[in-house]
Amino acid sequence: MTEGTLRYTAFTDDPAGGNPAGVLLDAAGLDDAAMLATAAEVGYSETVFVTARDEAERRFAVRYFSPLAEVAFCGHATIALAVALAERIGPGPLTLDTAAGEIPVRTVADGAGRVRATLTSVPTRSRPASEAEVGATLRALGWEAADLDPRLPPHVAFGGNDHLILAAAGRERLADLSYDFDALAEVMRRHNWTTVDLVWRASPVRFHARNPFPVGGVVEDPATGAAAAAFGGYLRALGLAPAAGTPIAIRQGEDMGRPSDLTITLDPGEPRTHVTGTAVPTV
To answer: Quick one: which H or E segment has residue 190?
Structure first.
């Protein structure tokens, strides 16, 4: 493995929870093949690579790789990177240049020294999913149309990557996830979706989520910041966004034994999502 690769887990303060990410703070000398090989060796859903840096301006060029391919944007690896940087150069604002666009990140240390990071997504968008998109996905998941919540229609939402959002009618349906890995991966590759964001609404400001990620070689993501950003755009598009600045809690990873807590907030007139979480080293 490339020397200096850090391992953090994001959207948790427990090393046994959250979504692990590899973090390489100096990848300026690595080519695409080397970054992909490193991500594959790390074995997490994503590893983030800092390919250029200006510490005086607190600006960093970054790239994200799953074990199988490059990803334009990854939320949990962004939170992990932001915390790792804040621990080394101090908390404060950061700017990340990604393939998806510029991502501002704010890092703040609490009284106990723990760092909390908030990323601001690129502009989001959301559109109704077609019958063909939904039908093929339901077949791969082994779900029926009756398993969906009619109050939260299927959409394809973007917050740096595209995600199909399907809302389960009940918590039990969300908890029982056993899908055809290859079939779902084929559907997702066809439509260029990064994850399928399966959600259940516990209240207008609290959701449970699961994110199958077969296109990245991973059965399920324990915490998906990019999907949370897209989900904020989805709520805005449906007119379901709460009052400005009201926290929306997303609980993910619970059913796979890696509980994660993501918080999103939305501002009126701004098509972006603020995604907040913590991160800690895994070892």
So the answer is: helix 181-191
- Mean pLDDT per block of 10 residues along the chain (283 residues) reads 85 96 97 96 95 97 94 96 97 97 96 91 97 98 98 97 97 97 98 97 98 91 96 97 95 97 94 97 88
> What are the C-alpha distances in Å from 41 to residues 1, 20, 31, 49, 214?
6, 14, 15, 14, 17
Q: What whole-number distance in Å separates Cα of residue 180 and Cα of residue 268?
A: 40
Show the domain range for 33.
5-120
Instruction: Give the span between the Cα atoms of 283 and 268, in whole angstroms.
Output: 40
Tell me the CB-side half-sphere exposure of residue 96, using CA atoms within 13 A: 33
Q: Exposure string (b/e) for 167-183, b if CB count within 10 Å is 16 or more?
A: bbbeeebbeebebeeeb
Strand ranges inside 11-109, DSSP E = 19-24, 46-54, 59-65, 70-71, 92-98, 101-109
- For the record, the structure tokens of 156 come out as 């394809």
Last residue of a domain, one of 120, 153, 187: 120
Residues with a known catalytic role: 46
**What does the pLDDT read at residue 277?**
97
pLDDT for res 95: 98
Q: How many domains does the chain have?
A: 2
